[in-house]
Every structure is written in structure tokens, then in C-alpha cells.
Task: structure prediction
Amino acid sequence: MAEERRVVTVLFADLAESSTLAETLDPEDLRALYGRYYDIASRVAQEHGGSIEKFIGDAVVMLFGLPVSHGDEAPRALSAALALRDLIRQDAELGSRLRPRIGISTGEVVGPLDPQSRNFLATGDTFNIAERLQDAAQPWAILCADRTIRASGGAFTFGATHPVDARGRRDRLLAANLLSRSRLRGRAPGRFVGRTAELEDLVRVARHAFHERRGAAITIVAPAGIGKSRLADEFVSRLPAVAPDVLVVTTQCLPYGDRLTFWPLRGVLLRLAGVREDETPEAVRAAAVRWLRGLGVSEPEHVALLLATTVGLASAEVHDPSALADAWRIAFEAAAEQHPLVVVIEDLHWSSESLLDLLERIVRPPLAAPFLFVSLSRPELMERRPLWSRENAPDERTLTLGRLPDAALGEYVGDLLADAPPALVAPLVARAEGNPFFAGELARALLEKVEHLRDVAVAERAVTALPDRVQDTILARLDHLPADARRVAQLGAVIGRSFRADILAALAPDLGPRLPAALEVLVDKEIASPTDERTFAFQHVLIRDVAYGVLVRAQRAVLHAAAARWFELQAAGRADAIAEIVAYHFREAALLARASGAPDDVSLSEKAVEWLSRAADAALLTAANVEAVRYLRSAIELAPRDRHADLYERIGDAFAGPEAADAYRTALALSRESAGPVDQQLRLVAGVLHVLMRSGHLAMPARVDADEVETLRAEGRALLSKAQDQRAIARFLAADAFHPFWMRSATARNPDAAELDEAEANARRALQTAESIGDARLASAALDGIGSVHSFRGDHREARAVALRRASMERQLDAIERLDAYTVATWESVWLGDLDEAIAISERGLAAVRPEQAPAWALHLVAWRALALMLRGEWDAALAAGMRARQLWRDCGELVARYALHGFIAALAVSRARHDDAASDDLRAAIDAIAATPDKPQRTLDFISTSPADIDHSLRVLDQRQPTTMQLALSFSSDAGRYAPARLLERLIASATYHSYPLVDAEAHRAIGLGRRDPVPLRYALEIFEQQAAVPAAARVRCELALLTGDTRELARGLRDLERIGDLVQIERYRAAGELRRDALSR
Result:
């Protein structure tokens, strides 16, 4: 039988603690488990061109290079080892039970050449070395011999090489842990120089996160070429020393990432779920379900659906981005519980706004698991998101890298030039100005210009001729490429930082069989590197930028159009997943063709509009409204005018507040101009009215024009009789139901009974339609209208019940609608005097929705919460809520948030009562800024003045119809010993309007009792305050009643209650009054 000596690579895998497993499992179960393990190993060997040499108990031996040699045995074995380890880790049955150790060795063996032979096994010391390395490896580690590392061709990342004591061998073995494929294959990373302190800092963060089992976030910030990726690579290589079973997943934002909403998370999901890039959406979702179920996640189907929806592989409608964030948090936390998890995202400065929002929600607050999020970015990210870096957060670390010191840069260049003389190294270091990428490009350009460096004079002249800018250096290197290779680089640059060979073949079919050779040249010249069997990536994004930049606009247009059509063909069955990429290329093609002066290609613009609209749909599915609006505005640039009304309407649907009103107004004007459909015009009228009348007090920067409202209402009613679309009719009716609410806010006139009846009828009709067509958001708006009518009629319990019904629909509603429902329920509870209920409801609302999702609406809820806490006597929490409201107000851009004044005033009352001058100044500044607007009278704030000149403050506020304002005005005036005229108070008590506001009723009786020095009204007020658990008010009335009647026990009791909450001002006042009374009695 023919035999030969061959250099092969041997992979030896064994299972740690397998004897314990055998003791705990039934033999049949153990056999089934091992059978699954062997099946995976056999498949991995076959897929990587190897063979199973033997199974020995729970050990597997793979052989690469015999009987068939591929010439790259070491890289194949290393790839197989990573695949075997990751497939075991991700398998629902195996991942939690098996802990593999793998050893890999390269060397000579003797074996048969016949592939069918099983009579003679290969022999040689290489097998023994692989086995010994496996013995020395930690569970989940892959320990590789030095010769295997040298044969890897720089395609993989390894830990530090170290000597290994091998059982039964005289000499120690040199070995290193295999960590991952290199970020860019084909080039060895070289020595790590100059960033030791930063590296140690990162390792400390990882060690703390893994040890404490608590998530952490790292951001590495530096300009292009300074060394972010090199530092990250070295950091990742050190992680197995911190946690041997760590799983690292790396992804990247593309240069046009602001137009690819959540694209980077696609790679993360595919890697964790263990599926290929080209799998169908159904296959990806099924794999995600299996993976999550194996991790023990509850509702794995629902979580998998949300993960897949994030990256366009499913179509679950998401109203609230926090649902997506929660799904990713659940998945990451469960995965990290099994193995420490590190997610690295490169080039985050190219990300979309919605991706940044989502990532913030994922990592903040930190996960309760050993999870590390690492982002690499240029400084532009910090300009976009100043709060991305939170230096004071204990679980977050930001490293800003400066230029590499000259000494370290000299070492780096010296390595690249193989110990060239200092006369060559120094000028390259000086020209690079601390940028290692530029230094590397200069060194490579020098090597391409000079045959050898021994002729120092020739080399020095070549150094002098090198370009002064990194871009010029790259261009010079590209210009020296063969024509085919240079063209392939340009084609790849059109696609992006990474590109696939099959796309290039479609873009340039004339290259034909020459394409592989051109790609080999790019790899050999270190322009690009293969990242897998069919994908390549530029060594640095600057190379891509330069290659793209030399193309003229007409060339770019043709190539983008070809790329768009290629991607369009791939979109069958997964259009949502790649709609943004297709839209990007069609849009670039259309705009570049137009800019280059080429004849207008209508079909190209039509395609761009079609795919931009689809991209907007995909973005809206994940509540990425900012990106959806960007796509729609891009579509408007290219669409014919008769499409603009539809596109602007969709922008209005995606927005909230003044932007929505403006978009609807524009769409309405266009629809009128073109005599558009009645149903469309009615929808647009309803859209504007919804913003102006329902949420104008929250969303609009200035007072709403009453004439505009009445004109639109009249137009809507005229359209109503002709409309056919039930949704359009219901939208208008729901919006019009808020006319009473708007009327009181805008005109200070209360609606009459007939107006309330009409509003309720409209709202109920809208609700019936909304429920019949399954439109939850429209149903919530209709319910809100019904609740508003109940509130006007004084039936606050029913109004609260309606608001809580809306809140119960939370999974079907977006963040704004949910926050509004909880806010209404909270304020109705305050008006009812149910302070504990108000506090509980507001707490549920803030837990259900992250305030940063809709800060203007969250501010409304926090303001009511601050008031409830103040009235209840939970003053520490009230002051904290007031300061939180102040921060939310700032997050909103310090908008005119008159609707939140009661919360600021409540917190101000607490800070003043406690002599907290700093907090008082901050809160008063916010109040003054909000109130100082030319379109709103100042009178509602006069009652918080401390000036003795404001003796008529009560008269200014008692004609206000807002019960909260009246209650605070009465309370503050009584606290200051200044009482409104009795005739006004009696008129107030007699008014049926305020019978349903117990705290207003109590404050009015308190003022009458104090003004007349009559204990009867005070006792009535005390009874109400105690029933409502309004601790501060009850304590004050108790003291006032005691001072009036001379009951020292009740005075002491009231003072104790005030001491518990820290009401220093009133304690001082009542004690002084008590001393005056004693002095008077003693005289």
C-alpha cells in the first residue's frame, strides 16, 4: 500500500471532566450526547477538508493534509477548531454539559495515500504533541504549537506564546491560545507597541466585569489610523487569560451606516445563533429560537422574533424601541450567563441614531451578567452624542487615544522594514506624526519602490520622494497595482469596507477568470484581506475611501446601479433585511447620474423611490422613526411631485409634535393643489388637529393659532360627509373629540354640556371603528377623548379607569401613548386626592417606559409624580423627582413646558421648606425660564413669590380653573399667613365644579378657618387631609388648630410630623406662634 511522509496538522479534542458527566448521566443519555458531539465533529472535519483519524472514548482526532493535501492545512485545522468549539458552545444540549479542550500541532507523519484505507493509521510525534497540548489547555481553550502558529499565515489571532510543560516530554513546548480569526486576514499584526497602559486599563475593566458578573462598556476613541483596532485586537487576545471560555463577537458599521439602521446587529445575531449569512429569514429565526431555548430564555419565540425584526429578518410591528432593547438584553444576559460575552462594534461613528439609542438601552443599566460591550469610534461620535461617554459611570470606560510616541512608532516601522538603519526609520516616523497606519503605508510604499534596503542612499532618496499625506501615499500604492487589481479595488470600494467576490463578478463580468488573480494581488500587496471563503475587506477604511474617491461621478453612478440591481436580485424572500442596502445603492446611482449631467434615468429614480419607501417601512417596523424620515425625505428628492403628498403624510405619521404638524400641513397643501382624494385630505386634517388639540400643550413650542384650529375643523366636517375610508373618519372624530380640552387650554373657557356631549359621541364612534379595524393607537386616542370628557364632568374615577384601560394596552402602544396614559391616570388620582395611587401609577409608568425615549412626555409624568410625593409627605423622593424633571426639561432642549410647572413648584416648595438654597435656585431658574414667555400670562406663578408686596396674590390665582394651581395657591397663601377674601372662598366652596377635588375643598376650608379663627372649618379640613394621607397639610392644620384651641398635645404631634418630613420653615413658624401665645397667656 502506498505511503508517504507528509507535513500535516493534527487537531486533538477532548472533554474536560467527562468522568463526572459519565457518573451523573444514564448510559443511554450519555451515548446520545456523545453521538451528537461526534456528528458535529465529523461534519466540521468534512467541511474543512480534513478527516476523522479516530474517536477515542470522548476524544476526537482530526487530520489535515493526509491523504489529500490542500496546501493550507494549518489554517483549515484552526478554522475547524473554532467551528467545533463554537458549535458545541451554541448547541442547546451540548453547550451546558460539554467543556472541550483542543490541542493543535503541525509536523511530519507517515500514512497511507489511499483515502479508502482504514488498515493503517498515520503515525508520528505530531499526534503526541497535539494530545499533550490538549492536556495543558483550559476548558474551551484551543492551544496551538508554535509551528502551527507560524503556518497560519497571519490569518488568526493568538495569545502570547509561552512554554508548556508537556507530560512525558523532556523539552517544554512553545504554544499559544487561538483566539479568533484575525480582523483582517493575510497580514500578521506585528508587535504591539506603545499602548501598554491603555491595554492594562482595558483588561482591568474586563476582569472586574467578569468577576463581578456585571456588564460594562468600553469606548475607544481616536482619529483614523491612530490604532483603535490594533489596541482592540490585542485586548481581545488577552481575554482568555481573564476568562478561558469567553466568547467574542465582532461586527462593524459600514461607511454609509447612517442609512443602515441596525445592520451591525445582524452579524451578532447570526454568529450567536450559529447560522450562515445566506440563510433564509425562516432558518435564522428557527436557529435563534433553538439557541435561546437552550439558554433557558422564557418566551424564546417572542424574543427571537424581536431580535430578527431588529435586523430585518422578521416583520413584528414594534411600537416601542425599548421592546427591542429588552429582547437584546435578555439574549445577551442569558448568553453571558453561560459564557462571558464580549461584543465589539467597530466604526461606531458611522452608526444610525436609532442604533445608538438601542445600544444605550442595551448597556444601560448594566446587565447582571459577565458582559462587555466594546465600541471603536472616531471623535465625531462624541460630537454627535456628548453623553455617550459617561466618565463618572462606574461600569463605563472611555479611552481617548493620542498620537503614538515616536519611540514606539520607530519600533513599529523598524519591524516592518526588517531592522532598517535609523537613517531610514527616523524620517518615516517624523512624517507619520504619530499615526501608525500612515507609518505603515509609508513603509510599504518604500518597500514597493526599493528592491532592497541595503543600498541606503537609494532608499533615502525614495523616502524623500514619498508623499506627505496618507491619502497620497495610498493613492501611489494603488497606482502601482496591475490594472485588473486596481479596478477590483475600485469595484470593492463601491460596495463598502468589505465586499464579496461574487458581487465583483457581477459588476465586471469581463474580468471573468482573471478576478481571482486580481484579488490575490490585493491580498499580496496588503490592500485587502480575505475574511472568509468569499468575502474580502480593505485593510483600512482610508484605503477604501481613496479607491472610491478616484472614480468619477458617472462611473460611480453606473457601478452603484449595477450593485443595486445585484442586491435586488438577492432580496427575494428577505427584502426587509437588505432594503436599506438596495435603497442606498439606487439612491446614490440616481443622484450621481443627475449630478454628472447624464440623461435623467426615470427608471433609476423610480427604483430609488420604491426602495427608499421600503427601507422606511423596515425602519418603522422597529420604531426607528428618525431613519424612516430620512429615507422618506430622500425619496422626496427623487420622486415626481404627484408622489410628494403621500410621502409627506408618511413623515407626519412617523413624527410627533411640530414636525408632524408641519409635514401634515405640507401634505395637505399638496393634496389640495392636486385635488387629491377626499380620504387623504381628511386624514391630513385629522393629523394636524391631533397634534394641535390633543398634544399641543406638550409638543408645540408656542400657543396654537385658534383660527387655524377652527378652519381645519370646518374643513374636516365638510370632508367627513364625502369620506369613505373608515380609518380616516375615525382619525378625524378622535382628534375633534379633544376640542373641549384644547378650548380650555387655549381660550380659558370651559366647554358647555352640549359641547361635551358632542365630543363624547365623536370619541365613542372613533373607538368603535378603531377596535373593529384593530388600530390600537387610534383606540387609545379615542379612549383619551372619552376620559377627557369624564374629567370635565367631574367624574375623575371614571376618567382614571379609562386611562388605566389605555395603559393596559401597553404592548400595542408606542412610548408616547403609554406615557400619556400613565400621566392622565396619575393626575386624575391627584385630583381625587388618592395620593398613594398616584405615586404607584407613576412608578409603574416610569418602569414601563424609559424616559429618554420621549423626554417631553416623561417630564409630564415626573412632574405629576413630584406633586403627589410632595403632597403625600415623601419629600426626599419629591425633591429627587423635581430634579429629575429639571434634567428631562434640559434633555428636551428647555422647551416651554408649562404643563410641568406644578411639579417644579412642588419640588421648590420642599427645597424652600428645608432651606436648601442650591436646589431652590436651580428649580426657580427653570420655573422662570418656562414661565417667561410672551404668549402666556405670568399670573399663575405669583403665588410662589416671597415678596411681601404681593399681597393680592390670591386674587390673581383664584380665577384660574386648574384645580392644582388653586390648591397650591391656597396652601402657600395659608402657609404664609395671607388669606383670600372670605367671599371668594365661599364662592369656591359653593361651586359644584370643585366638589370632586377634595384637596382643593380642604384648602379652602383651611383658609376660611384661619381667616375667621374658626376651628370648625379647620377640623373639616384636617379630616379630609387625613383621609387622603396628605401628611404635610394635615400636620400644618393640626398645628394651626392646636394654636387656636390651646391644645399643646396636638401641637407637639403636628410638629413631630413636620420634623419627620423636614419642614423647617413651618416648624419655626408654629413654634414662634406657640411662644407668642404662651407669652400672651402668661401676661
In short: Residues 944-1082 form one domain. Residues 183-187, 937-960 have pLDDT under 50 and may be disordered.
